[in-house]
């Protein structure tokens, strides 16, 4: 499967002599040196790929460069160096007119602060991108209403934005992006202005829509829990650089450095971990004695704990053909619940695992 979106060694420098600043960064200069000379390195040597139908989350603190990176992906900001390729087309070589065409038909953006027109109805806001494309009115209305229905706003088409709650307004923004049937959605902290419960609801809405529509999405957030809930893959940024790319499990269990590890300290692991990450794969084959109640690699942590509580031996993890691919000893679950630092799996026949019990040794 070829990547839908590719970022290749992207740099964005604001201020004096940006091209010279890029060369200095490549030679090992840091941001502080450049800042003293009047140049700000917002994004430094960022590279990644996004596959079709994937939610790729870029996460970092304020000032890490994530929003600048997003704006280079659709040409709102020109890279100082590097390339952005979408379906094989190098967007960094396009002129203004060609870029506007790409943005109006192939790439849609969902903003943090809704960006709705107060003098337009909900339907007219949802149809705005189609209006820019020159789509006939009847077709605009049909597609806007379909997108609003997908976002749970059927019946609100004639309402005004100020009659809607914050969450509903954000749904209109999402419907506007969906109505254009763009292949790529760019979402810049789209839920961060919402109250926690509404934010959770919008995350559910996005995941539900993704099940149906299989869009390619780049989602920006500063919230690791949100990143881990939504992202198929996550890029963590710090000071303009991507310091790690991986799945939620990679970020949680195999942080590249102390900076990434510091983000994971307060994460609820039970919402992220599955049997596939916890199982001991040294025990495989066909062992009917361990198959009275089994899990699969995708079984969530909480469900795995419930299964383990009903058994006196490690939980067997099987594949689609019911073949044993690993086991999860009870002490492994207890270790993660207690934030144990040693995450190396132990075989299920460990002498300390008799009856599924073990005294946990703290790191």
UniProtKB/TrEMBL annotation:
Q: Which GO terms describe its biological process?
A: glycine betaine transport; response to osmotic stress
Any one GO MF term held by the record is: ATP hydrolysis activity
Would you identify the family this protein belongs to, as annotated?
Belongs to the ABC transporter superfamily.
Instruction: Name the gene for this chain.
Output: opuAA_3
Protein name, entry field = Glycine betaine transport ATP-binding protein OpuAA
The record ties this protein, via CDD domains, to: ABC_Pro_Gly_Betaine (cd03294)
- Which stretches are tagged as biased composition: Basic and acidic residues? 349-363
Residue ranges for the region (Disordered) are 338-363
> What is the protein's species of origin?
Streptomyces chartreusis NRRL 3882
Q: Which intervals hold domain ABC transporter?
A: 5-264
Q: What broad class of enzyme is this?
A: hydrolase
Of the GO CC terms on this record, one is: membrane
Q: Which UniProt keywords apply?
A: ATP-binding, CBS domain, Hydrolase, Nucleotide-binding, Transport
């Amino acid at each position: 499967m070829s990547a839908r979106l590719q970022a290749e060694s992207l740099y964005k420098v604001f201020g004096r002599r940006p091209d010279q600043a890029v060369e200095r960064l490549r030679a090992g200069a840091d941001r502080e040196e450049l800042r003293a000379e009047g140049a700000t390195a917002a994004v430094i040597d960022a590279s990644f790929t996004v596959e079709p139908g994937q939610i790729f989350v870029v996460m970092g603190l304020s000032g890490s460069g994530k929003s600048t990176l997003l704006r280079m992906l659709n040409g709102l900001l020109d890279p100082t160096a590097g390339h952005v390729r979408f379906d094989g087309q190098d967007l960094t070589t396009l002129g203004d007119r060609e870029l506007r065409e790409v943005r109006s038909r192939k790439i849609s953006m969902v903003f943090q602060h809704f960006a709705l027109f107060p003098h337009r109805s909900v339907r007219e806001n949802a149809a705005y991108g189609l209006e820019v494309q020159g789509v006939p009115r009847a077709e605009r209305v049909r597609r806007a209403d379909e997108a609003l229905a997908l976002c749970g706003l059927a019946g609100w088409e004639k309402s005004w934005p100020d009659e809607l709650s914050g969450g509903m307004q954000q749904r209109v923004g999402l419907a506007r992006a969906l109505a254009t049937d763009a292949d790529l959605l760019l979402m810049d902290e789209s839920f961060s202005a919402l109250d926690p419960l509404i934010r959770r609801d919008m995350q559910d809405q996005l995941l539900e829509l993704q099940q149906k529509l299989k869009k390619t999405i780049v989602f920006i957030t500063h919230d690791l829990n949100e990143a881990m809930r939504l992202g198929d893959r996550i890029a963590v940024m710090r000071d303009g650089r991507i310091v790690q790319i991986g799945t939620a499990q990679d970020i949680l269990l195999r942080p590249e450095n102390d900076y990434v590890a510091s983000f994971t300290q307060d994460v609820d692991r039970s919402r992220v971990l599955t049997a596939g990450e916890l199982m001991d794969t040294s025990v495989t084959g066909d062992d009917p004695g361990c198959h009275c109640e089994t899990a699969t690699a995708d079984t969530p942590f909480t469900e795995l704990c419930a299964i383990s509580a009903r058994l006196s031996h490690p939980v067997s993890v099987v594949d689609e053909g019911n073949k044993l691919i690993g086991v999860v000893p009870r002490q492994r679950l207890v270790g993660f619940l207690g934030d144990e630092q040693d995450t190396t799996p132990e075989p299920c026949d460990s002498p300390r695992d008799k009856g599924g019990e073990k005294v946990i040794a703290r790191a």
